[in-house]
Amino acid sequence: MEIDLIKQLGYKAFDSRLKRISDHIAHNVKKLYKEIDLDVEPNWYLIFMLLKEHDHLSIANIAERIGYAHTSVFITVTKMSERGYVRLSTDKTDKRKQLVSLTTKATKSLPMLEQIWASCEAAILQILEDDLGIFSYLDKVDSNLEKTSFHQRFKQEYLKRTSAK
């Protein structure tokens, strides 16, 4: 059996381990969507959830609320718009802002999507064996990154090591 390098590296490959888990889940969600002939993508979930609660939000506001880059949200929203799930409009008070809102197609799809998402949530709970302790650790990671960015920490460590030579 091949050695799993990411597991072998442990904390040194922390980001790779999280990405691999995320990619695995997203790939399988996408696979189910395709099997049931659903034309949405897994990464649309957060935007659907936000817009379900708000009539409309700017792209910048969505990005801020989910902690993603503006460009990433813009690309996702554009795909959602192309498939008819969101409507883009210009803010009347600030022409630079694009407002995003759910379309009729999206609101009609929400009950089915919510059933699918509930199934996904149940599957995640099975994987976690109903132990949500991992989220306390992730909250600590988020909090520590808010206090001091990874860039600052990384740079500081790098400078310590290079100036010691």
TrEMBL record:
Q: Which Gene3D superfamilies match?
A: Winged helix-like DNA-binding domain superfamily/Winged helix DNA-binding domain
Pfam families listed in its UniProt record: MarR_2
Please provide the record's keywords in A-Z order.
Answer: DNA-binding, Transcription, Transcription regulation
Residue span, HTH marR-type domain: 15-147
Q: Which InterPro entries match?
A: HTH_MarR-typ, WH-like_DNA-bd_sf, WH_DNA-bd_sf
Classification via SMART domains: HTH_MARR (SM00347)
Protein name, UniProt field: MarR family transcriptional regulator
According to its UniProt entry, this protein's organism is Chitinophaga nivalis
